[in-house]
Design brief:
The protein is an alpha/beta fold and about 300 residues long. It has a single domain, classed as 3-Layer(aba) Sandwich (Rossmann fold), CATH 3.40.50.150. It contains 8 helices and 7 strands, in the order αβαβββαβααβαααβ. Strands 3-2-1-4-5-7-6 form a 7-stranded mixed sheet, sandwiched between helices. α2 links the parallel β1 and β2. α1 crosses α6, α4 crosses α8 and α6 runs antiparallel to α8. The radius of gyration is 20 Å and the shape is globular. Bound molecules: S-adenosylmethionine. Keywords: Methyltransferase, Transferase.
């Protein structure tokens, strides 16, 4: 159902009525996914799916973590990656998670783990050269094209000389001519990202962005995760994890009046159901991710 029209003429889109989920309220941030219990569960499933795709590893940078090292997780969400790292490293390793929203931070944590509300765009001045390793995963739905260079410069600044960064991002999908709902949903996604100035093809730009920020030894690994019932239980887990990313975009899409693709909440939900069905029925469907590893030069002349 469409909400009542505003009484005065306005260029603002007509919001489509729905029950909104909870979102961050960080000034200026364009991040489009919710931060509620449902999102926490999704992030936990997504973490398992991604670790499995990495061969049950939390990171692939060539680093052995030792006492006294410090690790930063940028855009930590529920902190699930950091909590798993805490189980794998000595308690003398300092673990810091930052996010623009604290609602998903875990209620209990080991003593060497700390969480704070910061934006990746401006990390604390005192963190200069402090970290051996910075991890950042899936900020694609939060960073604008003009913000990526700044975020990478900040990561470079807070890394110690010789320190490593690992980023993981979704790869913009191409093709799928035989999947009409997928094509339509992709076009909607593109319109939403563009309306917010977000960089949907950040994975394509990342190697250059990393070099430009001063990193070296830049390496990229692509991951192709089978998605849908045709790929068994793992395909179903991948489907649930990533379908719920798109379901989480319902409020921003409906608040933006459907962006020319959607005219009711039911239509949005039925698009999501159709997407799941296409993944289930199309053997070979994949979710494509890229992992980027890069090093801050050991000494800067
Ligand atoms: C898709 S979630 C991923 C969470 C976590 N990295 C993971 O993989 O489980 C993206 C997270 O980035 C955070 N975020 C978005 N924009 C941010 C910014 N400018 N600075 C820091 N965090 C940000 C969001 O609040 C959200 O928790």
């Amino acid at each position: 159902m469409l909400a009542d029209k505003p009484s005065t003429a306005s260029a603002l889109p007509q919001v489509i009525e729905h029950k909104p989920r909870a979102f961050h309220s960080f000034p200026g941030a364009q991040y489009i996914l919710p931060s509620d219990d449902e999102e926490r569960s999704r992030l936990e499933l997504q973490h398992r799916v991604i670790c499995r795709a990495l061969g049950n590893r939390l990171f692939i940078v060539p680093l052995s973590i030792k006492k006294g090292d410090k690790i930063l997780d940028c855009g930590t969400g529920s902190g699930i990656w950091l909590l798993d790292i805490a189980k794998a490293v000595p308690p003398e390793v300092g673990l810091q998670g930052i996010d623009i929203e604290s609602r998903l931070f875990p209620s209990s944590k080991p003593e060497n783990v700390n969480f704070s509300v910061e934006t990746a765009l401006r990390l604390p001045d005192g963190w200069q050269d402090a970290f051996t390793f910075v991890h950042q995963r899936l900020l694609i739905a939060g960073l604008q094209a003009k913000e990526w260079p700044q975020v990478l410069r900040e990561i470079h600044r807070v890394l110690a000389p010789g320190g490593w960064v690992q980023l993981l991002e979704a790869k913009e999908e191409q093709g799928a001519d035989n999947k009409p709902v997928t094509m339509r949903q992709r076009a909607l996604n593109k319109a939403l990202f563009s309306a917010r100035g977000l960089l949907l093809d950040c994975a394509t730009h990342m190697p250059d962005l990393l070099w430009e920020a001063g990193f070296e030894s830049v390496e990229v690994r692509e991951l192709h995760l089978p998605v849908g019932a045709w790929a068994g239980d793992e395909g179903i887990e991948t489907r649930e994890s990533f379908l719920n990313v798109f379901r989480g975009m319902k409020t921003p899409v409906l608040k933006a009046g459907g962006l020319g693709f959607i005219s009711s909440e039911e239509e949005f939900d039925s698009m999501m159901d159709g997407l799941a069905r296409e993944w289930d029925e199309t053997e070979g469907s994949t979710i494509n991710l890229c992992v980027f590893c890069a090093q801050k030069p050991p000494s800067e002349n």
